């Protein structure tokens, strides 16, 4: 007798939909018989600069050691991070992408009967991590596309163990200030772990966004997660980190894969962290590209959601889905966000100036066709 292996999966997993990534360039090239070199992908919040030359050099050097297991403790990278983030080495957890950190938190602190609270229009990995371990996802309605922190606090109950908040949030780009964060952290019960996902924080420096690290000392139930995938330009290597109390870091360390971050990723992340010029260039490119897209949207009479990330959601009303298809035919890949409860928007990653122009030109054409 054969088993029904969908029905046999634990109920939380049966209710999940797989994560939908941005459409890969090669896939679109195959489907439409296009030259991959002419396709513009602005769909996955990747850094359009390409990886830092210093990171590439570090990887080349590390290749000689590929036969060996990586340093399972990630000593060199943790040391650099501890110094830069003004924390002890024992407070750093490395992850296979910050995605890994989110999953480690879920595995260590969630279980059937317990729940995690997060916002509507939040990162798709929060429900996946939560339901994969049989816990309940408590989704709180957003306010003006952003996190409604007081409502999220109100949603916390006796079975809540984790709250996921992203600042800025993906896919909306919305953010909250230091005061709102502080009030929220003061309110949240001490036994609830607050995961502050700062995947895009490097783009927001100098703005009114709080630096999560400033709150670590005061709130032992805070974990700040960050990544090398976005502003540091290393998405393919999968490396991110969490900063927390040593106790939480110790707990996460118990459930992680022994070698969850590979040696090329470790070496590249160390080099990228030291390459301040690359980071400054990433920020500058993002700022000017954001202006370029907003100017283009204004000229086209389109609205958007203000964003502090390296992406922006443009409002296309009822025709967002056909416009997405029309853009694909023009060789431009952006991201539909209907599966995030945003059927009228498309999320566009800030690209190089020429990529942004190609996108705006394609959008103009597709809109004109009606
Ligand atoms: C991209 C992203 C991440 C992390 O990505 P990794 O590549 O796994 O580090 C985490 N949170 C949000 C909100 C993101 O957009």
Automatic annotation (TrEMBL):
GO biological process terms, semicolon-separated: L-histidine biosynthetic process
InterPro entries noted in UniProt: Aminotrans_II_pyridoxalP_BS, Aminotransferase_I/II_large, HisP_aminotrans, HistidinolP_aminotransfase, PyrdxlP-dep_Trfase, PyrdxlP-dep_Trfase_major, PyrdxlP-dep_Trfase_small
Aminotransferase class I/classII large domain span: 38-362
SUPFAM superfamilies: PLP-dependent transferases (SSF53383)
Catalytic activity entry: L-histidinol phosphate + 2-oxoglutarate = 3-(imidazol-4-yl)-2-oxopropyl phosphate + L-glutamate
Keyword terms: Amino-acid biosynthesis, Aminotransferase, Histidine biosynthesis, Pyridoxal phosphate, Transferase
Major enzyme class: transferase
Pathway in which the depicted protein is active: Amino-acid biosynthesis; L-histidine biosynthesis; L-histidine from 5-phospho-alpha-D-ribose 1-diphosphate: step 7/9
Cofactors that this protein relies on: pyridoxal 5'-phosphate
Database matches in Pfam families: Aminotran_1_2
Keyword Cytoplasm: no
MF-aspect GO terms: histidinol-phosphate transaminase activity; pyridoxal phosphate binding
Protein EC: 2.6.1.9
Residue list for modification N6-(pyridoxal phosphate)lysine: 230
Recorded family membership: Belongs to the class-II pyridoxal-phosphate-dependent aminotransferase family. Histidinol-phosphate aminotransferase subfamily.
Quaternary structure note: Homodimer.
Protein name per Swiss-Prot or TrEMBL: Histidinol-phosphate aminotransferase
Gene: hisC
């Amino acid at each position: 007798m054969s088993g029904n292996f969908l029905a046999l999966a634990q109920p939380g997993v049966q209710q999940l939909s797989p994560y939908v990534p941005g459409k890969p360039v090669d896939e679109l090239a195959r489907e439409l018989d296009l030259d991959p070199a002419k396709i513009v992908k602005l769909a996955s919040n990747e850094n359009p600069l390409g990886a830092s030359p210093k990171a590439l050099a570090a990887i080349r050097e590390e290749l000689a050691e590929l036969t060996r297991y990586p340093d399972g403790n990630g000593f060199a990278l943790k040391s650099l991070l501890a110094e830069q983030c003004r924390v002890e080495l024992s407070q750093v957890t490395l992850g296979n992408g910050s995605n890994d950190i989110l999953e480690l938190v879920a595995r260590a602190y969630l279980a059937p009967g317990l729940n995690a609270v997060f916002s509507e229009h939040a990162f798709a990995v929060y429900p996946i991590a939560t339901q994969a371990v049989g816990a309940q996802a408590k989704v709180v309605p957003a306010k003006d596309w952003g996190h409604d922190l007081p409502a999220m606090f109100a949603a916390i109950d006796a079975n809540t163990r984790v709250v996921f908040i992203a600042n800025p949030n993906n896919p909306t780009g919305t953010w909250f200030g230091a005061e709102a964060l502080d009030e929220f952290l003061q309110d949240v019960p001490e036994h609830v772990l607050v995961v502050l996902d700062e995947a895009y924080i490097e783009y927001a420096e100098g703005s009114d966004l709080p630096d999560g690290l400033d709150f670590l000392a005061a709130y032992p139930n805070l974990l700040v997660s960050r990544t090398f995938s976005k502003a540091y330009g290393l998405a393919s290597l999968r490396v991110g980190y969490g900063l927390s109390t040593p106790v939480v870091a110790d707990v996460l360390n118990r459930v992680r894969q022994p070698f969850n971050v590979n040696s090329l990723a470790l070496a590249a992340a160390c080099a990228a962290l030291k390459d301040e010029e690359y980071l400054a260039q990433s920020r500058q490119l993002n700022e000017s590209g954001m202006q370029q897209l907003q100017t283009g949207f204004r000229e086209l009479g389109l609205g958007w959601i203000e964003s502090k990330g390296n992406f922006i959601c443009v409002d296309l009303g009822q025709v967002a889905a056909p416009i997405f298809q029309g853009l694909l035919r023009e060789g431009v890949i952006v991201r539909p966000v209907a599966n995030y409860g945003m059927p009228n928007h498309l999320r566009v990653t800030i690209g190089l100036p020429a990529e942004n122009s190609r996108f705006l030109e394609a959008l103009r054409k597709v809109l004109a066709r009606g």
